[in-house]
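Box 3.1 A note on notation
Throughout this textbook, protein chains are presented in two layers. The first layer is the amino acid sequence; the second is a token string describing backbone geometry. Keep the layers aligned when reading.
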Amino acid sequence: MEVNGKAEPVELKDKFPDSTPTFVLVGLTYTGAKIGVAGGTIAGGKALPVKMGKKITLVDSATHVRYTLKLVYAGTAPEKVETFTSPARAAAMQTNAP
């Protein structure tokens, strides 16, 4: 799940984000999630759907803090991300080295 552009792993029934556990993941499928408020309620009283790859924005009515949520992965294991440096970038870095 991404919260305000920062990704973090979240399992079913987990509260997130880690820094300020505001939401809870109440449902999850490969195409979407259902989000609730940890210790609070969403207007209308139901969990909000978040479709895979789509952003939703929520505003805390008490503090007016905005949260943008986006489901980016719904697998059984954390997504593994590898990094690399392209040959052109590596050559440019060597050229600019002192």
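The helical segments are 87-95. The chain is about 10% helix and 35% strand.
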